[in-house]
Amino acid sequence: METNDTGKNIIIAGVGGQGILLFSNLLSKYYLKLGYELKISDVIGLGQRGGGVESHFRYSTKPVLSPFIKAGDVDYVISFEQTETLRFLHTLKKDGVIFSSTYELTSTSVNTGLQKPMPESKTELIKAADNKKYIINPDEHKSADFNISKMMNVVMLGYYAEFRGYSHNDMIQIVKENVPEKFVEGNIKAYEKGADIARNNLAAK
Amino acid sequence: MKTGKELGTIKMMNGNEAVARGAFEAGVKVAAGYPGTPSTEVMDYTNLRYKDIYCEWSNNEKVAVEVATGASFAGYRSLALMKTVGLHVAADALGGAAGSQINGGLVLVVSDDVGRIAGDDYNDCRHYGNMFNIPVLEPSDSQEAKDLMVEAFEISEKYSTPVILKTSSVICKTTSKVIIDENYKYEAKFRDKYPISFSKVIMTTIMTKAKGSEHPKLTKCFNDFVANMAQLAEDSNSAHYNRLELNSKKIGIITAGTPYYYAKEVLPEASFLKLGVINPLPKKMIQQLAAHVEKLYVIEEGHDVLEKNIKDLGISVIGKELFPKFPDMMRFTPDVIAERLVPDAEVRKPRTDVPFRLPIACAGCSHNFISSILKKHKIKAAADVTCGLIGCFPHMESYQLQKCMGSSIALTHGYNIAKNYSENFVAMIGDGGFWATGVNGLMNLVFNNSQSTVIIVDNSCLAMTGGQNVASSEFGFNYKPENRLDIAKVCEGIGIKDIVTVDAYEYETLEKSILNAVNAKTNSVVIVKKPCVTQFKLPKSEPFHIEQDACVKCRKCINVGCLAIESKKNNDGEFEIVINQDLCTGCGLCSTVCHKDAIKN
What we know:
A: Pyruvate-ferredoxin Oxidoreductase, domain 3; B: alpha/beta; Rossmann fold; 20 helices; globular; disordered N terminus
């Protein structure tokens, strides 16, 4: 865990139903415990019906002013859907980091033929970005008893916590305290899976 | 200065939670409202956490304001909740309350969908402050949302006027800290200032200064609300809710709401007038700032309301010439301010080739069954404000016309009489829109001898705003089975000749019912029942899949408008039409349109 962390600006992105708000809620509990000031702004729109969801998450040792992060000031883009990752690449600082799933929910306007699909592979476009990036392909981690696509939010939380060197015990405690009891076990499994994938990825780098 | 710990407990709340907390701390007794994104949750939180407060989802916004006004007249603090589009519906009720004496404080919590994040409206409720000469308050974070909610009631009673607390899509959905007193003991605040003179609380505005109004029997009824507002304007020059921050002499900014924080972050050295009450304006503070700085800007989201009001005070200010309003600007962000006011600011632009996302119906939605049948038989239709309105978008083209909440029945009647019923043109309306104002259109249709057909989609709730109860729901804050309104019985009572109720998933029966109704030479109603798949989490059936060998990619199934059907590249880079197995509910509608029999379960 880095010392003297005065705060970070994070954009969490995806589509409706991916649990973006749960992710930012769980993460906020961690930073609150550390005594940071926080502002979290959710742009939901018609998320449930195929729309994008974005959460501007800011923690700081000083009071946070704007609820929206100015493009160019973002430290981390954490995205659960790769079209949405592309939408926020321009907001990253030069040394900002991308965490992205390769999961894709095709845009409704492309499905219906209103818009042309992007000719390039979205995953390749993300890989070509100047920023440091960590990419999770859910298909590589699928198993019969665990639908990783449905749990990507908590998988990503585990991944992010490992990347930042945070205490997994503290984080798992937060998961326990904040998800309904019947989902605790599944969420802890997802969290540990994420931390696991991160350990392998980070070691490989 | 005391720290947060000494003052109370720090809680993280979004704007909606904070407004609900403010209502609690203000001693509100009655809360009435109508759901509308982004402020719907104010009522949900109030009902969930503060059981002492009576809560109701009213039939529409006008009814909500009337309920709150009645409670205020009875001496109790009351609030009415709605989004700005809803205030248009309630404007007549607010106009009646404005200008009359107030017993218990009366506050309207109204939210603008700034940036059109959830809706398609670009309205600004602050105009009503000017129109009715009433105060408008605007918070810039959750702490202020709570504090100004309490202040709104104080102002309402002190200056005897209804007050608007304006929030925005950003305030409502932004979580920040709020300091609360956990030991606060709720007490419903009561004030019986005008106990006997009913005449003092009738619509006195129309009589003030009218010809012949000098008679003492009339003058004693007058409420000099104009003088009250002038007094509030004067008092606001030294009020704690307006704050002058005199720094650099180069740039001065008058602002309110979240734009204050956008500007503060981008221009930390600038001088600021941060307004908590945006109507009326503190003239002396504005003059003081104007005298202090070389250039004075007004930074506001929405319309140029502050700007016009400041200019009306005779003070020149730079506003929309630098920050153009709709349609040039939708969402006001720090980037917009930096681009225009910070020399050499780095401008980052998003990629323009990333496909946008238009909303589409949830998998298994009953609306898709209806629009599919209408399209199949080339029946034209007006949609309403309902999840079904998604069918109006160009990627669906299921409906020809769509206007405001509850409008589709009267729109259809008008269309049909103008065209002498020469086309098959029907109305589609949700249960929410039907009860809100659509029922008026239906009564009108009967006694004006219309032969139109109305399809009422009964999904047992207001689905689009998150499943709140309507008059015919089997749940609700004040629900009792014996008080539930029955759509079919009401239609029958109104005098509809031909009424049929069908299950949305019974495709053939539904198709036949719609065709029968359209062909009947009388007024008719088809009630299509199916609880909202998303809100009621209906059990799923076996998901369908597309057999790629049989599929000819005609896209007929995609045009059903289901979120679960995607067109995407397979591992060989070829486009395929596929059904998302996680999203499919197994309703099978897509299989009815496939002429190659490629969709199976």
